[in-house]
User: Fold these one by one.
Assistant:
Number 1:
Amino acid sequence: MAEGWPSTRAYVVGSILNWLFFLAGLALLVWAQLGGFLTPWLGWPVALVITASVLGQFIVAYRSIAAMDEYWRGLTFKCGIVAAGVAISICVLWGFANQFLGVPAYPLWIVYPLFWGLFGIVSIFIRTSRA
Amino acid sequence: MKSRLRLLRAEHGITQEELARRTGVSRQAINALEAERHDPSLDLAYRIAAALGAPVELIFPNPHGDRSI
């Protein structure tokens, strides 16, 4: 197994494709909205494609984890739990601040890149699979 | 979990890479076991014991000692 975080070719290719679909879909929706031609007939299918890419990313991540040895699997789950906990906590805090304190609203899809960004950050620091 | 893995591996004159290959895990997993950053599953503990030709408890001393029922 290679040094560093283990990844399979399927994971790398799948991740690149899923993120390309996500970013391309997001760019298309923003462009269509700014251009004034965003209709439900365009918006819904693109939103579903973006959503499929999110689901696809978790599927390739799950398959990658399944192929890891027990140490990396434990480490990855630990990073995932920490990242999910922080991401959800931020969203909950922001949600209450938005509803009751007048803080500007942010789109819910932010939680997806937020989670993976946090996962990348915490994986630098978490090097033990132990509790 | 305390382990004598590093010591026993050195006594057998095999590298982390070699032990990893024999037990079907990554070199980092062996390193994490030696650095006590990972507690092995029973399955992995037995695989390592088989690879080193030593009883499991010689490599990974029972942390619960002789607490008998």
Note: The interface with chain A takes residues 20, 24-29, 32-33, 36-41, 44 of chain B (CB under 8 Å).
Number 2:
Amino acid sequence: MQLTRREKAKRRAQLRAAALAVLTLSAPEISRAESRAPGWHLEAATLLYAERSRTTVFEPVVSARRTFRNGHSLAGQFVFDAMTGASPSGAMPSGAAQTITTPSGRVQTIHDGSVPLKNFKDHRISVDGSYDLPVTRLLALSVGGHGSQETDYRSKGYKASLALDTPSRLNTIEVGGSQNFDEIDPNGGRPTPLNYNSVKPTLGQTTKRAWSALVGYTRVMSRRWLLKANYSREQDEGYLTEPYKVVSVINARTGSTVDYRWESRPDRRMRQAALLSSVYSVDERNVVHFEGRYYWDDWGLKSETGDVKWRLELDDTKFVQAHARFYHQGQADFFTYGLPDGSPLPSFATSDYRLGAMNSITIGAKYGVHMEGTGEFDVRIEYMRQMGDGHPKNAVGVQKDIDLMPAVDIVTIHLGVAIDR
Amino acid sequence: MDDQSTADTAGTFVKIDVRRVAKPGELAYWRAAFAAMGGPCEVLIDGPASEAEAMRCAEIVAGEVWRIERKYSRYRDDSVVAAINGAQGRVTEVDDETAQLLNYAGTCYEISDGLFDITSGILRRIWSFKPESPVPERAKIEKLLPLIGWEQCTWEAPCLSLKPGMELDLGGIAKEYAADRAASLSARTLPHSFVVNLGGDLFIRGLRANGTCWKIGIDDPGRTGERVLGAIEVETGGIATSGDARRFVLHHGQRLGHILNPKTGWPVTDAPRAVTVCAPSCIEAGTLATVAILRGRQARKFLRGQGVRFWVQE
């Protein structure tokens, strides 16, 4: 077909104009176009956590995420916890029968050398929501809030974070912060710290607040290797004591328990943690995760965690994952195995095993199946052994003959289903 | 950290290799190589840039090219193209960027009298273009022809619907578009001159530090990769080549190139072996080069008067 010179020029101008239109699109316009596939992502899971002869937690979780066409997404999660069993009261095993009162006035007697436990039954309901919105192609904002309720504890908080990608998407910088408000209203009243356990609590409900900040950096090191580092800092203020836990008062010579006092903790705590994690894809089927974490706070508690996961894709639809975790923590400055009778009282004292020196080992396995269509099912089983220092150097008298912190065995079973549509 | 999601995406991390190229008597430059869009890609960054600047420029270029590849690849089932092709006659609502590309494709169709057609990719099902591979039967071609033709699509931005069975392929535009986009993004941060080369589709930006142009070699289609026919010097603009010496079939002693006429379903006959065009943008250069080949014997005539530099290799 022969074109006139004028027709040719007109067509060329048309092409130029169309090219300019497509090439002058601004970044935000393109970022709006960038989006996760719109639709629903639904998850349902059940977790069963059992410490041998202690706490059992049954926790069903339902969550949903709705991604919109503009790339924004809204997510919500609902968790129900049913907790039953017994947790250590803080009193030391003494080799003799022990009688401890709870804030609600119940008297409990423990025989022999076992760890005094306090029976409890509670449930917790927690809801969590977040909204993610891409601001530009490289900058994403996420805001969220949560609330939870137990019979004696209420918590609410909000959080926000910003993630910035470099244009290559090889580097991501993240900053975030959160704030939390808790109300604590112990059953039977709140005891006066370090008062005798036999004195009925007289204090009422109280509060706790927390602020946290996080900075993180993620880098794609190579086609197979992803590295991430972050630092977080949290400031807690308010009532940080455990209202149901006691400290044994011991005879400084014989080590036998003569009385109990309510525990006492500072009303401020600054916690910091540094985390380094790496994901390495060995080949198309094998992925190895490593995570190292160092934690320290101004209560003198320090801990180190090493966590390794190895995931093997069995075929296009199934995978298995092995998991091992090693954890070590030192004890807090005011952790004690018993207050010597007759000595001046310290300002703070706790025998809560969670603030004592401890090692733990976790081993676990996970199996997942991508189901025909768009679903996924997984089952995870983990075993953890928690080992406190049951024979401390400063044990006195009969304490030397007893394991003050017997090892605790914990089994976790997790079943989950995810559906995309 | 949400380690599960990173595990799922492992194996898709990507790599850029940056090296300094210095030859005696020549101005040194940085060469960043990466793989995208089914082939090797590179960015050449003028010598005065620091290694960090070179890496940053390369990251911007590769990041944008990968983004466009993900979005418009017909080999990925999560791409926009896959969503459109999978709609089975239903309406697909597309984003602004895709809308502009479809408008551009519509213009190409119009100004080429229907020769440049993004719905003609379906012919690849029967034409493989491996040397010695047989020419498809006439009946098979006839069967596909009713499924080709941009005018059969209902396009009113942002809604597109294709007749069931039809397929869209933005392969003829996406690589050139990616070269332009990547270059314009990195030009915002890099003060130095550079070249983006996506497997032969290029965008060149600016004079080098010594005041000369980058020299872009033109491949001899008969001896591709071995001999360079000549060099093009461009200060700023896009260069694209259409025609490929390696992809053809022989039919009754006639050499059929890989560019198909969407109206006949048959390769363009008497077409030049390769056409290289230099235009203000790579996307225009690519379109003009392809339309020129589709015009067959009229290629040169078509290119004259377009206001662009071109090289036709018979």
Note: Chain A touches chain B through 51 residues (CB under 8 Å).
Number 3:
Amino acid sequence: MGEFAGYDMPLYYKEGVLKEHEWTRSHAGLFDVSHMGQVMVTGKGALGFWHKVTPGAYDKIPDGRAKYSVLPNAQGGIVDDLIVTRLGPEKFFSVINAGCKDKDIAWLKTHLPSDAEMDVWTGRSLIALQGPDSENVLREALGLETADMPYMWAMEMQGLMVSRLGYTGEDGFEISIPDDRAAAVWDKLLAHSSVKPVGLAARDSLRLEMGYPLYGHDIDDKTSPVEAGLQWIIARDHDDYIGAETILSHLHNGTQRHRVGILLTGKGIAREGSELRDLQDRKIGIMTSGGFSPTLKKSIGQGYVESGFAETGQKIFVNVRGNNIEAEIAGLSFVTAKTKSMKKKAA
Amino acid sequence: MPDMKYTQDHEWLKIEDGNVAVIGITDYAQNALGDLVYVELPKMGRQVKKGEHFAVVESVKTAAEVYTPVTGEVIGVNDNLSGDPELMKKSIEEGWIAKIKMNNPDEISGLMDKAAYDDFLKTVS
């Protein structure tokens, strides 16, 4: 067991991280992510609240649509990243990071208007089921029919909040469950022959292959969403959110550094904190996550480099224990996402 | 195996010809590391000092330095490990990392034998 954000978490179960990683990509992996925070914001002021605390827009999206976003600070840095789901014009569900829970809740409360209420769901567990067999497993193990549910979509079903999204790049779901039912739901899912439990270590290697940022490592209160390559979460048509001045300036004027993918072409494994250097051995950035990709059987990572070195294919060195290992800049995503379409099927 | 010695950092040593230490990592270390994906091997002929790291074993989750408890010269390197680090788990014959010709074979006298190492493991797990 490892300690993570104050929780005892299994880094891996009995088969080990490589097998768990591969099982998730080929079948369905079951993750206990109950350490994450869940909040419900309701009321007339809820929509305006989310427009204030994130750079996203939620007024033109349908009820049920989930969006990835960040909570910027006043300087345009990132307090946390999160998922915001519009359940109705005055009802929003959000999942936040474990390590940021207290900080986020305090931050959100500070900005909560008098005509909105925030309910922190402390009595709920969160289970992620990820992998190509997930839809079948939900049907066969729980009787939940999700065939018509698009990617980045949530529905309340059987008293569970079922969201079709995740942190692996596979089709899959996150399911919010009242604590008193959580063990029974976990056991039913685990009893399915396509399902194996997966720990935090594979959760990290799976997200690393997709280029998803991990808060506190790849993004933090000093990185703007533009530097982090998250321009796509910034709404075009509003500019009155916290941190907008810096974020819009970065968007229009460019930034000094960019988050990029890094592929090692030489031998070795590079991890968080490794210096990135140009071919003249000058420091040009730092690796913020790195490790072995079970899918590619290569060492991959992500980090920040000076803008002039951010082009895909740019040759660089990664310095590991004093040795320069050959590497190149790559796209953030090393494995093609297999998530479903976001389009809702016609009724 | 009377010629096996162990360290508190979970390396094993097999003594050959009186002055050559074949070094690898124990089952305990292998299990703690999990799936092994890369080994940084020392160069042939490198002079290593007692207590310094001469190899790095990388698993999916972490990197672990391998220390030498003896001073001497690297006279053998198990190159098979670079293609297949999981070989380390198979056996001493296939899973050794390096052979060190000891300057002072008396250095091994302070190391644990099998029984002492087994007792030591009870205190760490």
Note: Chain B touches chain A at residues 34-35, 37-38, 40, 56, 58, 60-61, 63, 82 (CB under 8 Å).
Number 4:
Amino acid sequence: MGDNSRFWLTLVKVILVQAVSLLLLWALQVRYTP
Amino acid sequence: MHPLNWIIIGGYLLYVVVDGIRRAKGTHEISGYFLANRSLPWWAVGLSVMATQLSAITLIGTTGQGATDGMRFIQFYFGLPLAMVILGVTLVPFLHGSGVFTAYEYLERRFDAKTRGLTSFLFLLSRGMSCGTIIAAPAVVLSAILGWKLIWSVALIGVPTVVYTMVGGVQAVTWVDVKQMVLIVAALVILAIVLVVGLPLGPDDALYLAGATGRLKAFDFSFDLDQTYTFWSGLIGGTFLMLSYFGTDQSQVQRYLTARSVDEARSSLLMSAFWKIPLQALVLLIGVLVFVHFLFRTPPLYFNPADRRAVERAASEELAELERRYLQAVAEREDVARAVAAARRGNDGVAIQSAVGEFLVRNQEVVAVRNQALELATRVTGSRSTDVNYITPWFVLHDLPLGMAGLFIAAVMAAAMSSIAAELNSLSTATVIDFYRRWVRPQGSDAHFLRVSKAATGFWGLFACVVATFAGTLGSLIEVVNRFGSFFYGSILGVFLLAMIPGARPNGAFFGLIAGMAAVATVNFGAPSVSFLWHNVVGATMVVLVGGLLSWLGNSRKTR
């Protein structure tokens, strides 16, 4: 696999993991902040 | 403190020193001492990158911030994953591929010696001082809670670090960082579990009470330049700050220059991109849980025992009156907190609303009395008293099961030592490579440079310990240097960005750097309320604009 395609794949993984982290934080805020 | 805690701390210190010194074997030349002959695996480098960034303040200050202010500090890190990805395709291949020892060495190849000299000098100045403050911050807290003189805490943290860094070089720094990172994460996870298990109510009720006070509010979407932490300052300003820190600060660049290949160097940075936000969220959540813990266990009026002693000596009557009001407010708050949990069990919406309203009023009363007490301490001691950094250590020492205090203090020391070791190692590299070998003795033997490198590590270690010991009296000087540091952080990033523009010229880079620093200084003094996270954006943009313009003018004159 070329460097470029590996980079884009990693970028997608980073975005996914961060999206899950931020969604969890968001859910925590929405669930418990009046 | 119980002897078992001391045994844990002593065991930890002995282990890191022996393990670090063991790594010196086979290091006979500076390429091994500073770069491990570019032989390290990505996961070890990645853990070292994370350990370097995570200082003792993260464990004691950020948890304290979680307890008093909640989760919103997490926004500071929102730009980090993006910055790591950008660095992976831009600076990392440039720096790793060019075979340099320091990031600034690359600037001489691309521009000229004066740009390299200035950026490296700025690095030495700011990191030399900041290394002292990294030792001082946990040392001051340890001294206060254990009742020691500051110099002993500084020595306990500083001496073992200097010894293993000096003897073992970057191999010792990296492999000890790996173990220290494991210890830190283990201590955090155990702390979180012990906290949750020890609460008199379930996690859902605990989070409900914390959320009622706004502590679970992690996102602020307002575009207010004066607010330090918002979604936008974290995402935009944070990206620039992290690009500067991981892309141009030698203490981080040197970590990934030791990786086996460009690809492994990239992967090591991506470890932070994946794990930094979840780890930081855990740290802040622990702080939030400490707040909930103190709803059901009377917290002290002053978490810093030195504050209490000073107030007791100077204003004992005022203290007695404040403590009486405080105990009453805390007891009332506890009753109402239990009432909130009971109302939630009853599932009665009106009762829950009313109990939460009452809880917030009582909590406000506790906060008001504490603020008065801190103001009194400020008046008495003459220096601003905020005891945020003392909340978690107090909790750990007084409220945790046997052995946990030792584990936590060892983790705090590990966090401090991993950052200090990386900084000493990089300060020594910049001193020897950018100045000694460049200007003083370009033709020395490898054995000679190795001796000088070890001496330079020892010198910077001693310098950092002296700065840490006199941190109290040097307070304003350190602040000036830190502020000065913030003037050029983004500007140095601008120079590296300029280096990637094909037509950029040496004078454009040098004068662009000066223009960037001047612009940040202007914003800093002209609009002091603007959050520091925006300074890096201003600095980097100004360097690219001015440097680009000067280079273009120079190029067009040449063509004519």
Note: Chain B has a mean pLDDT of 92.
